[in-house]
Amino acid sequence: MADDDTHARQRRALSHAFSQQALLEQEDILLVYVNLFIKKLGEMCDQDEPFNLVNWYNFTTFDIIGDLAFGESFGCLDKGQFHEWVALIYETVKAGAMEQATRRFAEPGSTIQNFLVNFIPKEKRARRRDHLKWSQDKVLSVAGSETTANELSGLTARLLKNPRVYKKLATEIRSAFKSEDEVTNDGLSKLPYLAACLSEGLRIHPPLPTALMRQVPKDGDTIDGHWVPGGVHVGVCAWAATHSPDNFKSPDEFIPERWMDDEWEGDDKKASQPFSTGPRGCIGRQ
């Protein structure tokens, strides 16, 4: 975890690329891949064969982030498969998760930790070491693509399972635009029910359901009435917070109206923080 000064410096360096103006300037790039995704989707539907929509969402988002971050897409949509570099990202992330898990079972360097680390396939460990020098690019690629694809997958599933919501959303969008050529980011941002569906999708399917960890200051602090020593890593599990009946009425039900109607004013909306909050909140939330 980067210290505050390092994090602030890196965030300043990237902030202009994630400004509202920069996003508007990149809209044409996004449309290229969105249109290609829709074309591929149509072709597969014409074949009347099942396909994995989650993968195709990932192909789209990885191609977009590849173009935005590196000036060239990964070609996932054209080939209908993951680029080998994208597959490498997945493998190193998995290895990292395994390594983090071992730290919770034993002291660094202990016999039991070394024993557990040996369960990580050698090729994954090697790939992770070789790939660390590209850590910032890797973070941008995963954070800007995998999380978006996860959210789109969850939202699509919820809309298909809730025809009432789907119909209401489709009516709002089709009433706002005469043709698909008129659909723009600015126009979509003015649709209240679409915004509510996105917020509810992020609540019920947080892209990163685990805790976004923070480190307690060196002098320690009191959290919810409990003293926590300095240096301890703490966090709130996003899934637990957004699915708790203490925070939301009917927490497991997909109800976009909770973000619009007074009937749901008792919900603690602040409990849903899919992009985290504070100075370390997600820079790409727009």
UniProtKB/TrEMBL annotation:
Chain positions recorded as heme binding sites: 282
Q: Which cofactor does it need?
A: heme
Show the stretches that span the lipid bilayer: none
Gene3D superfamilies the UniProt entry points to: Cytochrome P450
Give the keywords, sorted: Heme, Iron, Metal-binding, Monooxygenase, Oxidoreductase
Q: Which InterPro entries match?
A: Cyt_P450, Cyt_P450_CS, Cyt_P450_E_grp-I, Cyt_P450_sf, Cytochrome_P450_monoxygenase
CDD domains assigned to the protein according to its UniProt record, in alphabetical order: CYP60B-like
User: Which residues fall in a compositionally biased region of kind Basic and acidic residues?
Assistant: 259-271
| Pfam families in UniProt | p450
As one GO molecular function, the record gives: monooxygenase activity
**Similarity comment:** Belongs to the cytochrome P450 family.
**Name of the protein in its database record:** Cytochrome P450
What organism does the UniProt record list as the source? Answer: Knufia peltigerae
